[in-house]
Write a structure and sequence with these properties.
The protein is an alpha/beta fold. It has an eight-stranded mixed beta sheet, with helices on both faces. Strand 3, helix 1 and strand 4 form a beta-alpha-beta unit. The longest helix has 20 residues.
Amino acid sequence: MLIEETHKDVPTKEGGDGGSMRISLFHPTIPNYPNARFPGVVVFSEIYQVTGPVARFARHIAGQGYIVAAPSSYHEFTGPEPLAYDVPGTDAGNEYKIKKKLSAYDEDATLSVDTLLALPTCNGRVGATGMCLGGHLAYRAALDRRVSAAVCYFATDIHSHSLGTGMNDDSLERAGDIRGELVMIFGKKDNHVPPGGRDLIRKTLHEKGVCFSFYEVAWAQHAFIRDELSKGRYDPAISRICFEMLLELFGRTLKSDLGERVGGEATVENVC
């Protein structure tokens, strides 16, 4: 499927700077079907904003028939350009991550969903995905009941409650507010989210009654889907498998008209 790339600058309030947030848009097109409508997906980036790998990830999703909105998360502190994959870029990204207010992150997600739903070519259904910081932001986006599904790649700081100003977020506490379906993906060699942290996330999602799948890939490290300057961690085979998980979830929840999710766990008959 062909893709048109544009952007929209959206005014923000929570950041306190009176500025705007750049949302990169990746829109699928079908020749001779100008009125085609598609689901929307918000793609949240890692700490480096919308880099080459993030844009390529967004294009892959858009090429499957989804309108993708990729916000630049650090608009309070810098322009929409990506930070470099080097020591200064990493230091800046980590500084901004805990300098930004949690309410500002949530406003970014709300505005991104608003932007998608305002498009006449959006079918009214929205999902979210992201990696690293973006995995956490995709999880928080699912607190918005307009978000039907989220795929969270190696989401950082959920287990440690350490996102945003004060490093005391409420993401796990609010897990019960999630009404859509989650896919949580981690590598077992991810030293950013240790085994105890992954266990805590899984346990909490179970206790809060969230509908979710949880995958831990045996040899995958942090950032294993980043196909550029990944410091030897990029795994294309595993990345492809995880992308199929994303397509399965979004295809089932965003492209199909399922209506509202009703009831809890289905009873499974104990048969051979």
